[in-house]
Amino acid sequence: MPKVRRTRKKRPDGWELIEPTLEELDQKMKEAERESHEGKRQVEALWPIFRIHHQRSRYIYDLYYRRKAISRELYDYCLKERIADQNLIAKWRKQGYENLCCLRCIQARDTNFGTNCVCRVPKSKLEEVY
């Protein structure tokens, strides 16, 4: 039987500032996971989960890179504990990927025709459909 971890790594300073927002997003994630998927396509059932995952990662990204409101230690803690998606944030830092909604959007193998997600198309190039 595996040992139970009794000691937890102490959370860095500033955690109490971001904790309420992260708790709220965790609650939304739990609701999205419990939501019924009857009558939805397989991919449609995952959309709310991807949206909340994006919000959580974007929140940490904005606090560290844009507003500079959290320390490097707290940012690293969030990445290490997988509160924010490290790979998605790495893509956001590259030119042309600033508005990426998830990593599945750039994987052409997940689509029928080898195309990208709509978030990869510049808004000026999108056709308006009414």
TrEMBL record:
The keyword ATP-binding does not apply. GO terms for cellular component: spliceosomal complex. Its main location: nucleus. It comes from the Eukaryota. GO terms for biological process: mRNA splicing, via spliceosome. InterPro entries: BUD31 (IPR001748), BUD31/G10-rel_CS (IPR018230). It is found in: Nucleus. Keywords: Nucleus. The keyword Nucleus applies. Pfam families: BUD31. Belongs to the BUD31 (G10) family. This is Protein BUD31 homolog. It comes from Hyalella azteca.
